[in-house]
Amino acid sequence: MKVGEKHYHTIWLNADGRSVDIIDQRWLPHEFRIVTLKTVADVAVAIRDMWVRGAPLIGVTAAYGIAIAMADDPSDRHLDAVWEELNETRPTAINLRWALDAMRQFLRPLPAEDRAEAAYRRAGEIAEEDVELNRAIGANGLKIIREIAATKKPGEPVNILTHCNAGWLATVDYGTATAPIYMATEAGIPVHVYVDETRPRNQGAQLTAWELNGHGVPHTLIVDNAGGHLMQHGAVDMVIVGTDRTTANGDVCNKIGTYLKALAASDNDVPFYVALPSPTIDWTVKDGVKEIPIEERTGDEVSFVQGRGPDGAIISVRVSPEGSPSANPAFDVTPARLITGLITERGVATASPQGLKALFPERS
Ligand code: MRU
């Protein structure tokens, strides 16, 4: 997508053919910084400390991490060690393990001397595939927005609420939840987006609002607690969120607070959609609440807020008393029964084993 007049992906191979450049998302929306990841340790830090974040982008970054590892030492032992090292960086987003598995299965049968070049090629393909998956999600989600615009909001904007950042910054391009929004805008369908700020790290306020601003999509930033009130008053026509892991039964794990939005949507008959590429489906897990590991991040993310100070510097300020402990579960699980539909690259599935199997019969 665009930053100013220039088109960017969130990740790309550096001109040296070995390192990887990323947009360092810690500084947005205040500063646009690109950094180069040269080593596996750089890649691990970038994922763990959320220089890159969002399930699909985490996966692509890890794939490039394997490529860097193969350029260092293409042995099986090193491949396995780096698989373990990167897999531990963030526990919830399944795209991480999906990409690591895809890379290892592809590289294992190859002779060691061919692995580095093949790994960079495969990582690049995984990145391009992500763009295509999101484009297809966008086209499928656009049909839903078009339908709501025609039947419920003729001549008026369709109001869409989203949580966290499932935008182009969370993927290689387009985003998952935002792809239908960008496509609707391109198609001339008026939309307006309510952006949940998404405490504690404020991915909505810092990233989604920045993206939508950059593409001229009308939007309003709201506090996380405003969604229920807006839905009660008919201000929200649909919700679209992303996901870090969706189970074979259609339960959706996503950024903390998603579940509360789904409850409010259900109580107010607001359609609640989840946009996801198939690498986000964990076919080995059935019950999301019981089986998905929820990342517990540092309480400092709750006790402090980052922003731009009066002198222009990016600063962190404490919002709670010294000594008050804080807890920080980073994700929650929305049960399938609260979800209207799963917007995938192959179409829209009901959030159920039958719905997912109908779209992905090879998984039956
Ligand atoms: O902790 P984050 O910022 O990595 O969490 C991201 C989300 O929860 C996104 O909504 C999710 O990864 C879907 S992104 C297409």
TrEMBL record:
Residues under site feature: Transition state stabilizer: 164
UniProt cross-references to Gene3D superfamilies, sorted A to Z: translation initiation factor eif-2b, domain 1, Translation initiation factor eif-2b, domain 2
What catalytic reaction does the record list?
5-deoxy-alpha-D-ribose 1-phosphate = 5-deoxy-D-ribulose 1-phosphate; 5-(methylsulfanyl)-alpha-D-ribose 1-phosphate = 5-(methylsulfanyl)-D-ribulose 1-phosphate
GO BP terms: L-methionine salvage from methylthioadenosine
Q: Name one Pfam family in it.
A: IF-2B
Tell me the active site: 244
| EC primary class | isomerase
Enzyme Commission numbers on file: 5.3.1.23
SUPFAM superfamilies given for it? NagB/RpiA/CoA transferase-like
Pathway connected to this protein? Amino-acid biosynthesis; L-methionine biosynthesis via salvage pathway; L-methionine from S-methyl-5-thio-alpha-D-ribose 1-phosphate: step 1/6
Question: From the record, what ranges are coiled-coil?
Answer: none
Q: Which domain of life is it from?
A: Bacteria
In this chain, substrate is annotated as bound at: 53-55, 90, 203, 254-255
Record's keyword terms, sorted: Amino-acid biosynthesis, Isomerase, Methionine biosynthesis
Under the heading InterPro entries, the entry gives: IF-2B-related, IF-M1Pi, IF_2B-like_C, Initiation_fac_2B_a/b/d, M1Pi_N, NagB/RpiA_transferase-like
The UniProt GO MF terms for this protein read:
S-methyl-5-thioribose-1-phosphate isomerase activity
Known function: Catalyzes the interconversion of methylthioribose-1-phosphate (MTR-1-P) into methylthioribulose-1-phosphate (MTRu-1-P). Also catalyzes the interconversion of 5-deoxyribose 1-phosphate and 5-deoxyribulose 1-phosphate. Part of a bifunctional DHAP-shunt salvage pathway for SAM by-products.
Q: Which family does the record assign?
A: Belongs to the EIF-2B alpha/beta/delta subunits family. MtnA subfamily.
- Name of the protein: Methylthioribose-1-phosphate isomerase
Query: What is the organism field in this record?
Result: Ensifer oleiphilus
